Amino acid sequence: xxxxxxxxxxxxxxxxxxxxxKKTQLIGVVCQGxxxxxxxxxxxxxxxxDATEKLIKLVRDNEKHVQxxxxxxxxxxxxxLVNLTDIYTETGKPIIAITEREVNFDSxxxxxxxKFPNTYDNKLRYIIDAGNLYKTDINTAGGISKLFFHCxxxxxxxxxxxxxxxxIDSKLPESVRMAHLIGKIF
Length: 186
Known about the structure:
two-stranded antiparallel sheet; 6 helices; 9 strands; 32% strand
């Protein structure tokens, strides 16, 4: 693995559920190591089912340069879930979904069942397909922090090695952290 791997990190823009606005932005930041190179974005439906295809499109538009795809969880725009297997299969790029805390699967399952009775099975399948949620410790400028992740197309050891190179000021990889910060201004 190179010292300055090229990643694209995704997060969603801030949004409100109880408004007439039915879309938000999916923000992607391309970084070489920890240096921002490019910002990309596209609209996604709040609680929709288009995040996977939009994310794949944004990765393909930048695939010559990107080595790894990173996401801040597998949910965007409320419960617009991404399918990690489809993203890996369609782009050929290893994908890592980062979360800062352990997920309570039963709570998520109950929320999905309550809010999406007609599409519950499809949304739940994306969560199950994400696979194991691994835990690691990241040494950043602020000290050691716990981080959790799902991954496709890359080993757990390689994910840990990658995270050591791209998590500097925060336990979030820089490309994801920047996408998160940019998403806050929309």
